[in-house]
Amino acid sequence: MQRKRILAILFLIYFVFAILLNSVGTVILQVIHNYGVGKSAASVLEGFKDLPIAFVSFAIASFLPRLGYKRAMLAGLAIVTCACLAMPLVPGFATAKLLFLCVGVAFALIKVSVYSTLGLIATSRRDHAGIMNTLEGFFMVGVLCAYWVFGWFIDSGDPRSHSWLNVYWLLAALCAVTFVLLAVTEFDERLAALPAERSPAQDFTAMLKLFFKPLVCIFVLTAFLYVLIEQSIGTWLPTFNNEILHLPAAMSVQVTSIFAACLAVGRLSAGFVLRRLHWYPVMNACLLGMGAVVLLALPLTQGVVPDANVTWASAPVAAFLFPVIGLFMAPIYPGINSVMLSSLPQHQHSAMTGLLVIFSALGGTTGSLITGYVFGAFSGHFAFYLTLVPIGVVLVMLYFFRRAVEGIGNGGKDDLQRAAV
Fold it and tell me: Which residues of 164-198 are buried (b: 16+ CB within 10 A; e: fewer)?
């Protein structure tokens, strides 16, 4: 296969979906202003994005190798291209729901296919970890760009302006270009082929059997909690900046890019760090760092006085300190994913990724809905302080995950492989 070209295309696909997936916080802020939607009602956009990811992954992940990873990625890109075109053509809250529904369906196809393709082109476990962190780091570069691209189209002088919808013409064009590049690139997917004598029903049953293995169960629950934390912060940080720190709408979105930048730097550098240090102490240090940032930054958000002439130079210190939590958060998700997938043969990567995507999607929706409810019913301060609870639980779960991983000798790995038979 054309390894470098395929990697470049996978990174570009992830870049495109990073913008679409993580625009939900910005879109929530805009639909509140444009369509008079309440916070709790607006928070369902996260569900329209994440629940289809879970359902579609559950339905198709086990036999996606039969469809083909390339075909699945092409289908995903085609779906989101059409959805992006609908946003400016038929503006409305219902269209926003439809957009994220399509993004969720498409990303289920994309993520399972991309993660499985990594297993085909990685040359070793270390190479797999390096590519995984770089891929997720590139994803965060896309998130970083999303805040600035959307911020550039937002008219802060007129919160009710629909000018922000013009960003979707740009995104539709980017999706179309990526589709063409992927269509003309050859893939060799023979290593991922499932046993010919197995039926799709048997493939699906094998995926379910994987979940009931202790290691896999601990892994997906840890991923669930991690994504719950990340999505809680990423989705509601623009609204937090706007309502608690009293920043203008466009600046609220742009300042959130610091969070994405920290995630990008953390993940791009994690590939080098994890080649030299054991993953477990690195993850523990990251979780403790996350807790420290929450305890240091949130007290600084109390009593912020609105300033109509606020600038980057005069913005509250908390606006720049709290997003640094992304630097500590960054290595956790790709790190545990690589440890898990590297323990499995290539033909099991699709099923394992399917379970990962399902629980990641459920975690994202749960985190956004809980934070949205607490934000509206109590305060943004209390909503973000609550992240300390899942941070503590993840710290405990990682201990059991490490013990389970270290318990995989030849017998343990064979046991995992038998779950797919």
Answer: bbebbeebbebbbebbeebeeeebebeebebeeee
Query: For residue 151, what are its two tokens?
Result: 């911020």
- Other C-beta atoms closer than 10 Å to the C-beta of 404 total 18
Give dist(CA 136, CA 290) in Å, integer: 19
- The pLDDT score that the predictor gives to residue 420 is 45
Residue ranges, the chain, pLDDT below 70: 1, 125-126, 156, 159, 189-203, 206, 346-347, 407-421
Please give the pLDDT value at position 274: 76
What is the three-state SS of the chain? CCHHHHHHHHHHHHHHHHHHHCCHHHHHHHHHHHHCCCHHHHCHHHHHHHHHHHHHHHHHHHHHHHHCHHHHHHHHHHHHHHHHHHHHHCCCHHHHHHHHHHHHHHHHHHHHHHHHHHHHHCCCHHHHHHHHHHHHHHHHHHHHHHHHHHHHHCCCCCCCCCHHHHHHHHHHHHHHHHHHHHHCCCCCCHHHCCCCCCCHHHHHHHHHHHHCCHHHHHHHHHHHHHHHHHHHHHHHHHHHHHHCCCCCHHHHHHHCHHHHHHHHHHHHHHHHHCCCCCHHHHHHHHHHHHHHHHHHHHHHHCCCCCCCCCCCCCCCCHHHHHHHHHHHHCCHHHHHHHHHHCCCCHHHHHHHHHHHHHHHHHHHHHHHHHHHHHHHHCCHHHHHHCCHHHHHHHHHHHHHHHHHHHCCCHHHHHHHHHCCC
State the amino acid at position 36 in one-letter form.
G
Give the pLDDT of residue 198: 56
Task: Give the 3-state DSSP-derived string for 142-205, with helices as H, strands as E and coil as C.
Answer: HHHHHHHHHHHHCCCCCCCCCHHHHHHHHHHHHHHHHHHHHHCCCCCCHHHCCCCCCCHHHHHH
**CA gap 359, 376 in Å, rounded:** 26
pLDDT of residue 410: 45
pLDDT, position 419: 44
End-to-end CA distance of the chain: 28
Which pLDDT does position 294 carry in this prediction? 94
- Per-residue model confidence as pLDDT tens digits over 311-352: 888 888 989 999 999 999 988 988 888 888 777 776 677 778
